[in-house]
Amino acid sequence: GHGLTKFRYDHTYYDEEGNYIRNPPTHNDYAQILYEQGILGLLAFMSLFVFNFFRILKSFSVNYNYSTILLIQLIIIAISLNTINLLDHTIFWFIMAMTLYTKPINQKQHE
Question: Would you say residue 39 has pLDDT above 90?
Answer without folding.
Answer: yes
